[in-house]
Amino acid sequence: MKRYYIALICLLLLVMQGMAMSLLPSKLVYSNLLMTPHWVLLFLLIVAIFFDRDKTYFAVWYGMAFGLLLDIVYTGILGVYMVTYALVIYVIHGINRTIHSNFIGASLLVILGIILSDTLLYVIYSFVQITSMPWGTYLILRLLPTVAANMIFFIILYPVVKDRVTQWSEVINNA
């Protein structure tokens, strides 16, 4: 039953992610800075860090499913977010074994996850010629604002869901 809560939260974040830009001040939205909310990815990274064990990969499967939903709803190319989110969550899940699961460790893993996912999306979109933004411009006008905006959301999300996700993990693993 607890795994369904994760899916419901991901669905809620997927909907809210689409409205995120309308919540920001218009001066920020219409500036040169480009921010992409990766709220579903942030939550799934928390799931990968605090819910999944060494041999479970629930977050990867959710990443594939909700990445596909993101592709269907927001992009014109199917599979880009699906593969990117699943790959990034898998990598972070593997790195998590060597880092302590506390706020600092989770923050570092989330920053790495956002950088990996957004950079991989940029590379894919550059390869299929959807974007032609030079690397330096991408780094300054898109990657850094995206990391900063998503870290603000992570700082809000972490205390709300961390303990609950850990409890769900213990319930499932002790059953």
Describe the structure.
By secondary structure, the chain is mainly α. Helices cover 78% and strands 0% of the residues. It has 7 helices and no strands. Helix 3 (39-50) crosses helix 6. The radius of gyration is 16 Å and the shape is globular. The N and C termini lie close together (12 Å). The model has no long low-confidence stretch (mean pLDDT 91).
Share of residues in helices? over 70%
Helix-strand topology string: HHHHHHH
Count of separate DSSP helical elements: 7
Structural class given helices, strands, pairing?
Answer: mainly alpha
Q: Which tags fit this structure?
A:
globular; single chain; 7 helices; mainly alpha; 175 residues; 78% helix
Short description:
The protein is mainly alpha-helical and about 180 residues long.
Explain the layout of strands and helices.
Layout (H helix, E strand, L loop, with lengths): L1 H22 L2 H4 L9 H12 L7 H17 L5 H16 L7 H25 L7 H40 L1
